[in-house]
Amino acid sequence: MTMMIQPIQPGFVGVVTGIDICQPITAKQVAEIERGMDSLAVLSFPNQPLTDDQQVTFSANFGELEIPLAAQMMAPEKRRFQKIELGDISNFDGKNTDRLRDREDSRRMYALANRLWHSDASFRAVGAGYTLLHSRVNPTKGGNTEFADMRAAYDALDSATKALVDDMIVGHSIVYSREQIGFEVKDDGNPDNLRPVKHRLVVTHPVTGRKSLYLSSHIGEIDGWLVPEARAFLRDLTEHATQPQFVYSHKWAVNDMVMWDNRTVMHRATRFDDLKERRDLRRTSIKGVGLAIDHVPAQQAAE
Q: How many domains, in total, are found in the chain?
């Protein structure tokens, strides 16, 4: 088989064929995928019936894997997967896959914020590089994942707004995104998990040199701005960045794997009837080592 990447949304999204990612892949194939991620930002690998182990093995080709915050905050006996690197993107009641989460389940409330536009792990000092999401069960309606091209959104800003945002420093926290849906994140005894971290709002891709907005619902403050004016501005900027011309919506098929670059893409899940229909995806994310998003440590930003 010869691997091919066919753009389906030019400059943004491609479909990868001619490769079996359930099996070990070569260094050449890894390099080709990374080149595809540099030139595009979202790659879809259809019909890949991965096991949990195979997903972790494939993902590890691109760097060190993140341990999801939810897994860190959860007692080991309550985790659904043996592989701690896997994120549980489902509406199941923990390990019980025959039961869906109740309407008032705190895990359901927490996960509803995934329907806001965000960049994975931007609440860490170095956010996620690539995210890889694999579909196992899909609802009959809804539950798509939408992606917004933050490079194109930056390019489309007028010159005055570019000048305003180019050196802007913003604070990210998981608390801010959950606040937007009225959910309070409880302190787990480790304040570093909730303390805001500083990032630049505009980042530059280390390979292509192209600028993009590093936006996320996890942002709740702008250095030097009052909170109300900061959040109003961030809402306007997000509305600009998620206009239809910048967005691709992926309708999941079972065994799809989709991979994206959090430096250049925001994403969100779309609504489905999560009290009646099952949805099960597994997520792996690459740490920002080697893909590091330009960030400013909180102490440095305060100086």
A: 1
